[in-house]
Amino acid sequence: MKDMMNTGPAVHAAAIMYAEEARAGLMDRREFLSRATALGVTAPVAYGLLGLAAPAEAQAAKVGGTLRVGMEVKAQKDPRTADWPHIANVYRGWLEYLIQYNPDGTFEGRLLESWEANADATEYTLKVRPGVTWNNGDAFTADDVVRMFTRWTDASVEGNAMASRFLGLVDEATKSLREGSVVKVDDLTVVLKMSLSDVAVVANLADYPAAVVHSSFVDGSDPSANPIGTGPYLPKEVAVGQRAILARNADHAWWGGVAPLDEIHYIDFGTDPAAMVALAGSDEIDCNYESTGEFITVLDGLGWNKLEAVTASTIVMRMNSASSDLYKEKAVRQAIQKAVDPKVVLELGYNGLGTTAENHHACPVHPEYAQIPAQTIDPAGLKPALEAAGLADAEFELISLDDGWEAASTDAVGAQLRDAGMNIKRTVMPGSTFWNDWAKYPFSSTTWNHRPLAVQNMSLAYTSTGSWNETGMANPEFDAAMARALALADADARRTEMATLETILQDEGYIIQPFWRSLYRHAREGVNIDMHPSFEHHHYKWSIA
Amino acid sequence: MYLFLLRRVGLMLLTALSLSFIVFCLTNLAPNLEKLARTEGSVRMTDDDVANWVIQNGHGGSMVSRYGEWLGVVPGWVLTDEKGVTRGRCLQGGLTVESAPRFCGIFQGNWGTSTVFREPVLKTVTNKLAATGWLMFWVMMVMVPTALVLGVLSGMREGSRTDRVLSTFAIASTATPEYVSGVILIAFLGSATAGISPVLSSWGWIEGRTLFQGTATSAMDKITFWNFALPVITIALYGIGYIARMTRASMTEVMTQQYIRTARLKGVSFRQIIIKHALRNALIAPFTVIMLQFPWLLNGVVIVETLFNYKGFGWTLVQAAGNNDIQLLLGCSVVAVFVVLITQLISDIGYVFLNPRIRLS
Q1: Residues of chain B with CATH 1.10.3720.10
Q2: A397: nearest Cα among A320, A331, A329, A340
Q3: A75 vs B118, B192, B197: nearest CB
Q4: What was the ipTM of the complex prediction?
Q5: What integer is the mean pLDDT of B192-207?
Q6: Distance between CA A533 and CA A530 in Å, rounded?
């Protein structure tokens, strides 16, 4: 491959192939950037392959100022067990990631300078960024990287969200890091030798539970208690439910230079979106976490800047056959699924701020998305199906959060099911109680964040071993197809498996997945921030004019 | 007098004991413990894991003995799980089995740790109570004088136009619950899109977008007129109407007394009659009502603090209840009992000074 490049390291063969596809118009630019950078091609090189110049870094931002962000402040957790981006957005102040997923769909090395995958994506070579130090003075080395993989792969830790992410590095018997799978070559080089192909390694390293902690970190402890990290900020105060303050660490020479903002204040105002509007109006915050539904136009009306991220974020109204007998029969689930018109849900629940989906949780923005035949919506078929199953008089309960677009979308689903002849009861719960049991409700709505690859959400939620399986679905064919899909580095090759996965998931009827959301947030004039498809806050990019 | 005080303190302790026991029982019901296990451990635990977690974290055994542990009259639990990790009620902050005290309940000054806020309950409760204290203080400062003035004015001449107008206002304000008046006030005075703020803003009369701030969160750091007025008015409005009605009733009654008539016949001016003769007697009943407002205020702050996002005692109570934070709920209920009973004690003592006919014992 070297002969194709005049300078710099070798470019992955697939990336060059992708570039040809992108230039030929077979793949859009966003997809190309996402795939090429996942293979270890740096963003400027990826743009170069398309014959484009990389977007210039923001002009030198003004240093100084305090930014007030309206966001729920949740209790800090051991990063690998973090279950909310909100938790990560606080520890992101002082903890950094090996790789970062940028809003434009590219992957950028942070604590890694670069990485390279071999042809079948079973071996990754990670190059550690030289000159990075922890804020206690220790140097960041390859040893830290190896240690992190040990932490991430330890499945004996309850709620370790990273445990199922690196199956190729795990020893099945001990449920921990396989001997010899992560090898330190020298102080700045680590090689991952995986037992199977895994395309999601890079994306997984960039996900929010993958923050890199210091060797002195006590497992399961609050990371803000002893905030040793590589990042530019330090937690000044973390008061759950109230606020969190990050202040620039004056005693730490951060490898990235100077982060412009002096302080970042996260202020918790609860979950009511109306409160955010009131706050924006009375100038108590400079930007919010997310703007949803009808509040988008209200905030526009206040003259705030709207920031958009195109995403595969969605809401899933899912039935759970493990916790309720009502949903054991496939025919019943299918009839319920087909009784709901996604267009209506998008319009009523989300003001049409997105695109309709196809009840299989794979989005056209995912590189491996496969087109499968459209479903026919059939509300008339629900009543006979319920009668056939002897459930004509049974009471079904549909649960959701108590406010915002989640409730409105779920209401739209409930109303359509009621119209189709189902005896359905709607229950709403406040956020503080709803999330305690989110995976257990018989029939409820769950919001799903954007992930760069379709296989990521699918393997988490719908395989029988997925750590966030909330449907009780256990389909061996699906599991097998998923294992195959996760072994294909090439997204085009993965697409045939994807068609199988999408068809099975849709056919099982567990989920009503009506639309894909575009995500928005608002900021007042003069605030330089961005919206990220996974709600990540990259503090060092922020500034105030 | 001392006997009375002693009896009151005894009653207070007894009430605190019974109330905390009731709260303890409710928070320790099996489904609530399961909820706690799922929040604290993991949402994906199996039912066996949950049962195990409940026992391993000291929520097993009889309810009475656990209540005893919380009080500090029964030795705290110590358990070692299958991984060899020893945990115990008293083993907080790096204490080992040997160095830890045997008893650690509230009698020993240990209020436990809040699972929601991850800090000692005593710290949470005192901080939040201080915040609520400020709210109550300003409510009282607004409510009491306004209500008394309104009540006296309307009670001076029963049936007059002033009386009718003020009575209508008083009835309307006391008939409007806080969650209604709060929302109306926010929409009218504290919203950038509705009410008078957009108009004032477009005329250039106000600097920001809103006249008042629709939330009181910034009042946690610094109380200003603009961030605190709305919550204070919201709570005060409700009480103003009530106290004004009581004052009016008491005032009208006094005004029909023989001695008032005698004074008038003697030619004392109306003003002198009100100030010298009527007021002191008319204020005895409202005094009790005002002291009774404290329990009501504790009630009212739950709604108002949640509405205005003011992180005080009421808001904490909502968070604790929503997350089944056992220790914090118990702490809150004990504190609530003391606040209520102490204000009632003050009320009873104050009553004696206002009305010499009453004796305490």
Answers
A1: 121-360
A2: A320
A3: B118
A4: 0.76
A5: 79
A6: 10
Over residues B145-156, the pLDDT tens digits come to 999 999 989 888
CB contact under 8 A, A159 and B186: no
Fold classification of A68-210 is Dipeptide-binding Protein; domain 1 (3.90.76)
Q: For chain A, say whether B87 makes contact (Cβ under 8 Å).
A: no
Q: Indicate if the pLDDT at residue A215 is higher than 70.
A: yes
Contact B190 A282 (CB under 8 A): yes
**What pTM value is reported for the model?**
0.74
> Which two three-digit tokens encode residue A236?
């000044």
Instruction: Determine which of A243, A263, A436 to mutate to test the interface with B (most B C-beta atoms within 10 Å).
Output: A436
By Cβ distance, the residue of A159, A241, A284 closest to B319 is A241
Please give the structure tokens belonging to residue A160: 């370790």
B277: how many CB neighbours lie within 10 A of its CB? 19
How far apart are the C-alpha atoms of A301 and A277, rounded to whole Å?
Answer: 10
Buried b (16+ CB within 10 A) or exposed e, A196-221: ebbbbbbbbbbbbbbbbbbeebeeee
Note whether A275 contacts B215, CB cutoff 8 Å. Answer: yes
**Closest residue of B to A432, CA-based?**
B322
pLDDT in tens, B37-63: 877 766 656 777 788 888 877 887 788
Q: Contact B218/A433, CB-based, under 8 Å?
A: no
Rounded percentage of chain A residues whose pLDDT exceeds 70: 89
pLDDT in tens, A379-392: 999 999 999 998 98
Q: Does A280 touch chain B (CB under 8 A)?
A: yes
Q: Which of A269, A282, A440 sits opposite B208 (nearest CB)?
A: A282
Comparison of pLDDT for B8 and A526, the residue scoring more = A526
- Tell me what pLDDT residue A3 has: 36
A87, A219, A284, A440, best to mutate vs chain B, most B CBs in 10 Å: A284
CA distance B11 to chain A (A): 35
Domain B121-360 has what CATH class? Answer: mainly alpha
Inspect the interface and report whether the beta carbons of A269 and B191 lie closer than 8 Å.
Answer: no
Domain range list for chain A: 68-210, 234-304+525-544, 310-518
Mean pLDDT of chain A: 86
Given a contact cutoff of 8 angstroms between Cβ atoms, the answer to whether A334 and A506 are in contact is no
Q: What is the pLDDT of residue A102?
A: 86
What integer is the mean pLDDT of A203-215? Answer: 92
Residue A6 predicted with pLDDT over 70 = no
Residues A248, A66: Cα–Cα separation, whole Å? 10
CATH topology for A310-518 is Dipeptide-binding Protein; domain 3 (3.10.105)
Provide the β-strand partners of residue A183: A191
Q: CB-based contact (8 Å) between A137 and chain B?
A: no
